[in-house]
Amino acid sequence: MAMLGKRRPKRAPSGVSGLQGRKSEDRHAPAAPREREPDLLEIQGLAHDGRGVARSPEGKTVFVEGALPGERVRVAVHRTRQRFDEAHVRELETPSAERVVPPCPHFGRCGGCDLQHLALPAQRRHKQAVLMELLGRQGISLDDAPELLVGAGEDYRRRARLGVKVDADGRVHLGFRARHTHRLVDIASCTVLVPSLEALLAPLHQQLSALEAPRQVGHLELLESDRGVVLIVRQLRDHAGDTHRWQAFAEAQGVHLARWLGREAPAFEWLTPVPALECRVPGPSGEIPLRVEPGDFLQANAEVNRLMVGAALAWLSPLVGQARLLDLFAGIGNFSLPLAAAGARVTTAEGSPAMVERLAGNAKANGLDIEAYQADLNDPAAVRELLTATRPEVVVLDPPREGAEAVSQALKATPVPRLLYVSCDPATLSRDAAHLLQGGYRIVRAAVADMFVHTSHLESMLMFEYTGSTRDPQGAPSDG
Q1: Distances in Å between the alpha carbon of 22 and those of 1, 7, 26?
Q2: What is the full DSSP assignment across 33-60?
Q3: Backbone phi, psi, residue 28, to 5°
Q4: Number of C-alpha atoms within 13 angstroms, CB side, residue 95?
Q5: Where residue 112 falls among pLDDT bands split at 50, 70, 90?
Q6: How far, in Å, are 261, 272, 310 from residue 269 at the CA level?
Q7: 68: domain range?
């Protein structure tokens, strides 16, 4: 098989067959080529995704997983592309002073946390630098480094999705995906999950192994609310015996239980009494409860989310009292309700009808007068209609990763005095910020929120004010 597809070299008949005569032939055979020595590279910086960046001896860019700036490492290239190579560390010759021992035993195999080998202060400086660099690519500079909104380094993640797989030998595996693959890494512990969720990992392993039909389980979802823990089972096909086993498990562990049942169009149902789930956010005079349901968007890090809401209240406090405020991509009211409680006259828009209903219910439950609408915020005409109808003095944006390009373009044509943009993707934020600067806005405050500690993901907050002086991000300002 080793020569399949290759022409065999001709050789003179030896007069022997089989294994006879090989010893004498090998004496004259050329020596096998030695394996190439791994390249020794010096890491010059960190890419946005947390990989080290170096140059090969030939001058080609190399992205090195697990390497840090200033380190000298021997690497093995595992993927070659036209403009760059991707590699991993084979040997660490000179470690960085900021390298630390990863707190999680699954680091390097699990794809969940990719920066645990870098000290926390350095992780956060890196995230500040990423935001500033991406803004810089649009010709936008900040007067000062972004503020930092940071919480605990461990035990922070209040929601998680765990994959389930049964191998050919019938063994059940539960965990997270390896980086850039669909391969499942068994997880026995997780340093970033809140304690109530981490405590379920071992019992869930045992529970899955005790099922009669574990192959019918697609994945598990865990959520910690302020009213208890929720376990959601993604079940491909009903199995009465296993349903009773899950209900017994929920009772023993003291968790709420629900499931998605079906393969093509799964239906949601509670398998324990329907709970009244809620999470709390800070308001100007105390905490504000928000009703939440499985499937609603909820920030994974409750502590950092509270810091972001607090920052929004502080940044907008001089303007909020009785101001007309439009909250777009409003979700269940994460920012809307605290700002309404501070005195703003709030109108909201959100693409999901279910979350519009939830926001309206949350406002009513807290005695707040908020108008909540469903709208396609990627439709420029719908956005222009909202701006014209509400004539806001303040706009708040908290879009998904795709950003808010339609909204940013509309705000150029229909400017507002103040705009707060909350983003989970600094690349799309930078793109939209360029539109806004072209429309006469300027950045007056910036922050990076370390929502996902030990990962390269970051949340950002930019506050803009309208000046009327338009600016090409690549050029000079001009009067608009």
Answers
A1: 19, 20, 6
A2: PPPPPPEEEE--EE-TTS-EEEE-TTS-
A3: -105, 0
A4: 11
A5: confident
A6: 8, 9, 35
A7: 39-99
The mean-pLDDT minimum among 38-47, 118-127, 177-186, 438-447 falls in: 177-186
| 15 vs 161, more confident | 161
Cα separation, 147 vs 165, in Å, equals: 42
Q: Which residues contact 205 (CB under 8 A, 6 or more apart)?
A: 172, 174, 188
For helices 426-438 and 120-137, the axis angle rounded to 10 degrees is 40
pLDDT of 2: 38
Give 210-223 pLDDT, tens digit per residue: 999 999 999 999 99
In angstroms, the CA 265 to CA 443 distance is 45
Q: What is the pLDDT of residues 224-252, one digit of tens each?
A: 999 999 999 999 999 999 999 999 999 99
Instruction: Return the structure tokens found at 76.
Output: 């093995």
Active site residues: 424
pLDDT of residue 473: 55
Query: Considering the entire predicted model, what is its pTM?
Result: 0.87
Could you tell me if 351 and 331 are in contact, meaning their C-beta atoms sit under 8 angstroms apart?
A: no
- Is residue 14 one of the residues assigned to a domain? no
Residue 435: both structure tokens together: 């539109």
10 Å CB burial of residue 33 (0-12, 13-18, 19+) is exposed
Cα four-point dihedral sign 168, 171, 174, 177: negative
DSSP H or E run through 148: strand 147-149
In 226-357, DSSP assigns E strands to 228-235, 256-261, 267-270, 278-283, 286-291, 324-328, 345-350
Cite the annotated binding site for [4Fe-4S] cluster by residue number.
104, 110, 113, 190
Residue 325 in this model has a pLDDT that exceeds 80: yes
Annotated binding site for S-adenosyl-L-methionine: 299, 329, 334, 350, 376, 398
Question: Is 438 found in the same domain as 302?
Answer: yes
Examine the domain organization and report whether 138 and 186 are in the same domain: no
Q: Same domain for 244 and 304? A: no
